Records
---
Amino acid sequence: MLSYWEQDAWTQYDFVVVGAGIIGLSTALSLKEQRPQSSVAVLERGFIPRGASTRNAGFACFGSLTEILSDMQTNGEEATVRLVRARYAGLDVLRKRLGDSACGYEQHGGFELLFESNVAALEQIERINNALRDIFPSAAFHERNDLIAEYGFGTNRVKAIVKSDFEGQIHSGRMMRSLAVLAQERGVMLLWGADVQAIDHEPTAVQLHLKHNDESLTIRAAQAVLCTNAFTSTFAPELGIKPARGQILMTSPIADLPFRGVFHFDEGFYYFRNVSSPHGERILLGGGRNLDFDAEETTALTLNAAIQQELERLLREMILPERSFTIEQRWSGIMGFHASKLPIVRRTHERLVVGFACNGMGVALGSTIGADTARCALGE
Ligand SMILES: Cc1cc2nc3c(=O)[nH]c(=O)nc-3n(C[C@H](O)[C@H](O)[C@H](O)COP(=O)(O)OP(=O)(O)OC[C@H]3O[C@@H](n4cnc5c(N)ncnc54)[C@H](O)[C@@H]3O)c2cc1C
């Protein structure tokens, strides 16, 4: 049973955001910016954020050439251009909000490796650059095949490289920690280990029922916001958001690594980058979900041995041929996917809003979706 003091000071807020990922924390910050006097709490079931935001690859990316072509086929040119614009704007908000050092931002560019099977995409560069001309200060994509040899990639597979000068990379852990610190500084109450088990609607408030070990607690809010990404279907199954696991591995430091930046191939199903660590430059490689879509539609934070094996093979044969390294870390993370591949910011009840971004590309978009979600919660 709660004491009077606990009940009075800890259990009622104007806005409660569920989920302390990039979207949840950005939403909370935007709410505080718009309504400084309001009380805002973020409920996170992990002791630290345990969603995609702290387990991703840290690409601050807008979509590679073939991803954009594929998105245009699914959603049309206008919606795809709008999404790229929102990503570019979102990254700008994140960098201004935290500063580059606090999010470990580096800009070495983004590179897409093209193979025999999709090298024809090069013919579309001009059309896509034209479609994106109002977003970027200069052409979004250009062909840089000279880099194949310079970067030492296996030439039997890589036929062309398309570079985007504007893509960058972050340190996902540092960025999320800085975002949490900033939210706290701005007066947002962060409650960790707060697992929301059920949500009830009353005439004047929404009730969020929490569980932590054997304890339970009910929190009331005038408005609740779900930023629970892959786990949103627990509370809003009608939105059709599904989990999709991503596998990652990281190498030991590699002497004289010839490249820096974020790299994509196979329509973004694979991605790798350099990670600057105190011991030297490492490579992070992730992806391979397309090898086993069924098994990877899960929320289990475990490894898929077959996919990890394929990642390691690609690393040794195509990305770092003839270099010696070991695999020092492997992990997985859970993305949320929706068939439309477009963000969802929607009021699903008089007192409940959902902010969902990202289909595997939420770093750049997160701050913009957070601002949209806050506006929706404010009824604007
Ligand atoms: C392996 C991998 C690699 C990726 N690489 C990139 C990349 O390089 N670039 C990029 O842009 N994007 C990448 N992404 C996608 C990106 O990480 C996500 O789009 C983004 O982090 C989503 O943010 P979010 O705030 O919506 O969700 P999340 O970060 O998943 O946050 C949701 C939070 O809600 C909490 N939660 C859920 N249910 C409850 C509940 N009932 N009660 C309380 N708390 C709850 C979770 O614990 C979690 O912390 C990657 C994702 C993965 C998994």
---
Amino acid sequence: MLLPVRAGLAPSAVFRGLNALVREALLASCSGRTIDESTLPYGLWNAAQANLATDACFQALAVAIRALDDEGRLQLYLGVRTASSVRQLFTDPIAATQEIPEAVNVELRNLTTHLFKSSSTLAGITQACGETVMDHYNRYSAIHPPGNGNVCGICATEYLAQRRGRIAANEQWRAPYDHLLAKEKYPQFGIDPDNLMPICNTCNSKAKLAKDLLHNLAGQRRMCFDPWTENFQGQVNLNIDLQDISPGVTWSMSPQPLTNQSKLATWDEVYRIKERIEGEFSSVEVKLAEDLDCTDLAAFKHSLTAKAHARKQFERRTPFNYWRHLLYRSLLRMADTDLEQLRTLCHATLDPNGDAETTYGI
Ligand SMILES: [Zn+2]
């Protein structure tokens, strides 16, 4: 994550409860026994059975497992008991996903997709688990710790969802929960709370699409950050290149440790971060002029210092604040002659009447 997930943020009780139920259903069917409710939220199994569509999905999974031979059921049972967690798969390139017979995989995919789309909002399910999905989302996106704020933690370029005034918390718009590992390819993680994270619409629907965090486009296994515990602040740098006709922002990565190189590359390739940041600052002199005092060099440097601090402080409040702070910090390391050249370019974008960007016709 670019904006680290804050400690103490409990996962979604609904996703956690349903995920535990799926795992227990797999183990029970493999063993030929009934569901053991002692490890599940009280009333959850009854609530799931009370919904005909949900019950049908669980029964279809049980039928598919009963159709396996004894060895197949044993191997499936052992696989469920010992499978790598989704978070192990993120960070350990040796960790392998569980092999699941295709007939079972089909029903598992149907079940977890149904639970995610439909059952997670059922009154009986949420009552048994103790909160709704929206309750979790509101906890997740809260600005005060342990909430993570309303800016997408993957890219820091977009709100998770716009807030509307005078609208109750449970009626607000919310961001999509991204299946970090796609539910079609990894149905065993289709309702796993560690695999479900609110991210912005651009990350989810424009950048990532069907890309696989565990494999590159050539199908080779790769590493990625564990978004729940790892973050990559301080490992990307922005600089301004004044050699070109118009100044441009250049991006560089400085992995710490070096093994993070592949994790950074995965993050950039999947979510297209570099091109999104370079696009935002493609007319960087305008972006600077709208935010900084371009009167003279002293005022320019003073505003850079103040804004770098403020933008960092409010990185979870407003999109691009993290990236602005990163850019301003790098500008403060420039020689005065270069900074003055940049300030002059910024100042030239300002109209004498006070309207910016007139020369750009924006
Ligand atoms: Zn995003």
